[in-house]
Specification:
328 residues, alpha/beta, TIM Barrel, 10-stranded mixed sheet, two-stranded antiparallel sheet, 12 strands, binds ligand PBG, lyase, EC 4.2.1.24, porphobilinogen synthase activity, zinc ion binding, metal-binding
Amino acid sequence: MNQFKRHRRLRASKEIRALVQETTIDINKLIYPLFVVEGENIKEEIPSMPGVYHLSLDQLLLELQELRFLGLNKIILFGIPEVKDAFGSGAFQKDGIIQRATRFIKENYPNFLVIADTCICQYTTDGHCGLLQDGVIVNDESLEIHNQVALSQAIAGVDIVAPSSMMDGFVSSIRATLDNHGFEHTPIMSYGIKYSSAFYGPFRDAAENAPSGGSNRDTYQMNPANRLEALRELASDIKEGADFIIIKPALAYLDIIRDIRNNSSLPIIAYQVSGEYSMLKAAAINGWIDEQQVVEETFLSMFRAGADAIITYSAKDYAKWLHNNGAT
Ligand code: PBG
């Protein structure tokens, strides 16, 4: 008698399972990425990311309408400029695609929380996140450019800047620039823990920012083999004044999310990146997995690991499932 514990008592009905469920998905904690392009009447699906589009501003308006109807109001913007140059100057022009999109969104939908990806890789001819000089991505010279990008985004009215270049000192440098120009209330969501990952493949089609000539981002993004290095990056971000920390990719890095949770009280954002989305979509389209169940399971795993919020291309699908048939 009584020689083993009956764990199944707490799994016996839907009700009791709900009662003891430790983690839940909250739609308020989902951030939806959007790709904005110049031009008019453009809604072009990204081939490797079914359901994700390049949108011109007029089409963006319709998209926001739908998102609002579905209960999503947090977005992260990526801009694809018409022209690129060596300095990525399209990223910090007053009338750059992101600056125009931000003003447009704020005029039409002031209640959307607008996060801007603060980087230059979509805007540079070489596709790198920092300046390329004699074959080297130079650090300190790049900071000056990123300061300008962040400042121009703040002036345009973004709610949060999200610097993603992984240059050393990028958070303190942007913090100082924002503070010096009266934007001390604009938070920084730092992509502080960003791995040099093959899971970004589809995004590089979407954002047209693949590094040129077969080069890669290994000198600034982190080695996927490393864990302690994430703690060092975290320490810098905390010291430099980050308000949030992004961990990216998400599903293959749940251990890192947990490590950061255990070592910091900063809000953690998990970025479920393009390749994660494309894998799920491809399997779902083939009928090999139940997309809703699998997506929900990935969200739960990220929250369980310690994430406070998730940037995910599946946010809209999730919102639709919630709307149509009730998510599980
Ligand atoms: C670069 C940037 C990348 C992503 C967002 N911003 C990665 C990269 O190309 O190195 C990837 C997002 C995704 O894969 O969904 N600033």
